[in-house]
Amino acid sequence: MKVLSKEQHLQQKTIRDFFLLVIIVGAFAVVGACTCNANQSEEDAMAGLMGAPKDVSHSENSAELDNIGQFAVEQYNSKEGKNLSFKKIVSAKTQVVAGTMYHLVIEAHGDDAVKNYEAKVWHKPWENHKSLEHFKPHGGSASQ
User: Fold this and answer.
1) Domain 54-137, CATH class in plain words
2) Alpha-carbon torsion 84, 108, 65, 69, what sign?
3) Which of 115, 34, 40 is nearest to 76 (CA)?
4) What is the pTM of this model?
5) Residue 99 CA to its chain's centroid (Å)
6) Which SS3 state, helix, strand or coil, does residue 105 take?
7) Which distant-in-sequence residues (6+ apart) come within 8 Å of 48 by Cβ?
8) Domain spans of the chain, in order of start
9) How many CA atoms lie within 13 A of 137 on its CB side?
10) pLDDT digits (tens, 9 = 90+) for 68-115
């Protein structure tokens, strides 16, 4: 059996304590990340993560969302030579990126039909930047 000096013993204790602390912190991180209820949907679980899209209720920022939706339709019309008219926001999610990415389902009127469209608008107000990133027909049908 090897006899350790006081300095070697202290060094081993320090290393052991450090690794024990790393294991404990890691365990708390895993437990914190696993606080999802088993009955939650994957989307609900993701909504708790930073940077994940989060649902916006219809009452939250409705004027702001309407402005973003109107902007999306106007930009689409300008780029594609279409003549859609913004009617309302059907659903909305926001995602914190370098600014806010709005994930919208928009009801719009065009060609004598009301249709839903998916749109993504990136907004960075401190740079006075707003851009339409995505706009296409939505799989669901709109009310007439």
Assistant:
1) alpha beta
2) negative
3) 115
4) 0.61
5) 11
6) strand
7) 36
8) 6-35, 54-137
9) 9
10) 999 999 999 999 999 999 999 999 999 998 899 999 999 999 888 899
